[in-house]
Amino acid sequence: MAVSADTEAKIGWVTPAAAWRLCLCPASASHSGGPHKPAPGPVENAGQAAHLALQSWIESRSFIDRPESLAQSFDDACTSAGVHVSELRNGRMTRARLVARGTQLAALLASAGSGADITCEEPLADASRLLWGIPDIVVRGSRTMVLDLKTGADAATDVSESVRLQLLLYSHLFRFTYGALPAVTAAFSLAHGLIEIPAQPEAVDLAVESVIAARHATGARPSPEGCRHCPRRFACESHWAAVHEGDLADALEGVISESATAESGLIALRISSQASKHLVTGISDETIRGDVAVGSHVRIVRALQLSSSERQAMWRGGKTTAVEVDPLG
């Protein structure tokens, strides 16, 4: 089923990586623009460096002549970015896993035959359904494949439903572009190796239909999974209604009654709301948008509630906590 012009204007293009969020909550979906190949950005984590290493390793055909060199490509990617492996979170662990998995991935690619066309980070698109994405690896040879490299917390022994949907949509884009589904649709986990998923035509069609149906849905659907990293979280009143109902346990809002800064530089806020009082500690100044002032309205997300009593709820901020002061002003 093609997408109408009305829906195109409302939702725009959707990538496999964003599809799960669209299905969870249409109001949270991000717009990716049309198919394009993004310019390389700064290397900020080990996963980014690993993907750059993979691309270089494949495009240079090193996986054929020097399959063990994937870790060296990782070192080179870090050097080019001006960072040391040890400076990246999980950098050394990621490098060790590249050493362990490089030859396995090279053997998998070689199984497609000596004349196989193997591309990395190349866009595929289905303009009729406004779907596009950039699979990590596409293989066309005696054995066809769509592979997605998993390097971090998603490098588990099984794939999550969000990754499963992503892979099924990549398979659809492969089919739309080349006329048939790939023989292998899989995540390649640095921790566990190849994790194939069943990608029969029915499953792929159902994945595409779920995205199209989500395009036509309206309104927000607050949930812990959908809301946690939603970019519209501060402004979504449906989300805040769910917070007040107790359905979302990592957020709070109210009026600042007191603020203090510890010697460490971390900030503590006392907050009063209609329901109760709160003390939030461990807030980094870097996570605050707006000026902290007594009497200002504040919203805080991705905080950990430590305890709660009739007198006061205790909270602690963390690396992912975000604070917006006076967002309604």
Count of folded domains: 2
Taken as a percent bin, the fraction of beta residues is: 15-25%
Strand count, sense and closure of the main sheet?
8 strands, mixed
Series of H and E elements: HHHHHHEEEEEHEEHHHEEEEEEEE
Please work out how many helical segments DSSP would assign: 10
How do the strands line up in the largest sheet? 11-15-12-8-9-10-14-13
DSSP E strands, number: 15
Q: Which descriptor suits the 3D outline? A: globular
The pLDDT mean sits at 91
Helix content, binned percent: 25-40%
What structural class do you assign from the helix and strand content? Answer: alpha+beta
Radius of gyration: 23 Å
- N/C terminus separation: 43 Å
Low-confidence stretches: 1-9
Summarize the structure.
Helices cover 34% and strands 22% of the residues. By secondary structure, it is α+β, with helices and mostly antiparallel strands. It has 2 domains: 5-216, no CATH class; 225-325, Beta Barrel (OB fold (Dihydrolipoamide Acetyltransferase, E2P)).
Walk me through this protein's architecture:
The structure is a single chain. This protein is an alpha+beta fold. The chain folds into two domains: 5-216, no CATH class; 225-325, OB fold (Dihydrolipoamide Acetyltransferase, E2P) (Beta Barrel), CATH 2.40.50.140. Helix content is 34%, strand content 22%. It contains ten helices and 15 strands. The strands form three sheets. It has an eight-stranded mixed sheet with strand order 11-15-12-8-9-10-14-13. Strands 1-4-5-6-7 form a five-stranded mixed sheet. The longest helix is centred in the N-terminal third of the chain and has 20 residues, at 91-110. Mean pLDDT is 91; it is low at 1-9.
